[in-house]
Amino acid sequence: MKIFAHRGASRYAPENTLPAFEIAHELGADGIELDVQLTKDLIPVIIHDENIRRTTNGTGFVQNYTLDELQEFDAGYWFSKQYLHTPIMSLKEFLQWVQNKNMLVNIELKTNVIEYPTIERRVIELLTEYNMINKTTISSFNPYTIQRVRDVSADIELAWLTKNQVKDIEQFLHEIGANTIHIKSRLLSSKMVKRLLNYDIPFRVYTVNRVSLARKCVTMGADGLFTDIPDVIKNNI
Fold first, then answer.
1. Pick from 3, 44, 68, 106: CA 20 to 30 A from residue 202's CA?
2. What is the distance between the alpha carbons of residues 31 and 137, in angstroms, rounded to a whole number?
3. Neighbour count for residue 186 (Cβ, 10 Å)
4. Cβ-based burial of 82 (10 A; exposed 0-12, middle 13-18, buried ≥19)
5. CA–CA gap between residue 41 and residue 39 (Å, rounded)
6. Spatial distance between the Cα atoms of 135 and 133, rounded to a whole number of angstroms
7. CA 13 → CA 25, 77, 189, 227, distances in Å?
8. Where are the domains of the chain?
9. pTM value?
10. CATH number of this structure's domain 2-234
11. How many CB atoms neighbour CB 22 within 10 A?
């Protein structure tokens, strides 16, 4: 089972920043999960929220700033003094960092609130440029985003994110072009998971920060999980 560091090793460093990604790599995580929005100048950038106020010292929406403007804000000060002046990272910068490391990548496209036209194509272009298509999964809560990515790339693994059960899940995933599904942990014992297993559809579980829950993921046949503490989970399952 693959252990993905959720927003990097986000228990130990500010989420979705280079320090969190570096720690995830040092701790032996199999992969890194990160979130991507689009800037005013249409550059994919790594941040979870549409508004920058929770994880930086600024306010306002990602889409209203250029990348250069966003990188003037501090994305580490809120976590601890150790991470003062940590910048927001562009997806391009991340791919330059990760491309020669033996790690999988999960990019969640945050299009369930703001659609960000062209984000799908721009992300695929970057993944192609850095030869990362085969090491990357793109996920989204927005099924139309999954469809748009599939229209651009026949090869990349696509995962639909859900907190809820869906009837005839295998048919739904086929219709939107998804290979796999990422489910909230409370769905582990659901009938939907039994259908996924019956149809040999791989699934991963988020966000797993308890060893007992991680062990249940193993027992239930999950393909992977997302955790803020990859070392603790990896060493105890």
1. 44
2. 10
3. 11
4. exposed
5. 5
6. 6
7. 13, 11, 32, 13
8. 2-234
9. 0.98
10. 3.20.20.190
11. 14
Return the ∠ at Cα 25 (arms to 23 and 28), rounded to 5°. Answer: 110
3-class DSSP string for the chain? CEEEEECCCCCCCCCCCHHHHHHHHHCCCCEEEEEEEECCCCCEEECCCCECCCCCCCCCEHHHCCHHHHCCCCCCCCCCHHHCCCCCEEHHHHHHHHCCCCCEEEEEECCCCCCCCCHHHHHHHHHHHCCCHHHEEEEECCHHHHHHHHHHCCCCEEEEEECCCCCCHHHHHHHHCCCEEEEEHHHCCCHHHHHHHHCCCCEEEECCCCHHHHHHHHHCCCCEEEECCHHHHHCCC
The amino acid present at 235, given as its one-letter code, is: N
- As a whole number of angstroms, the distance between CA 61 and CA 52 comes to 6
**Which single residue is written with the structure tokens 């549409």?**
50
In the structure encoding, which two tokens stand for residue 140, read together?
């989204």
Predicted confidence pLDDT, tens digits, the chain (237 residues): 999 999 999 999 999 999 999 999 999 999 999 999 999 999 999 999 999 999 999 999 999 999 999 999 999 999 999 999 999 999 999 999 999 999 999 999 999 999 999 999 999 999 999 999 999 999 999 999 999 999 999 999 999 999 999 999 999 999 999 999 999 999 999 999 999 999 999 999 999 999 999 999 999 999 999 999 999 999 999
Longest dimension (CA), the chain: 50
Task: Confirm if 63 and 50 have CB atoms less than 8 A apart.
Answer: yes
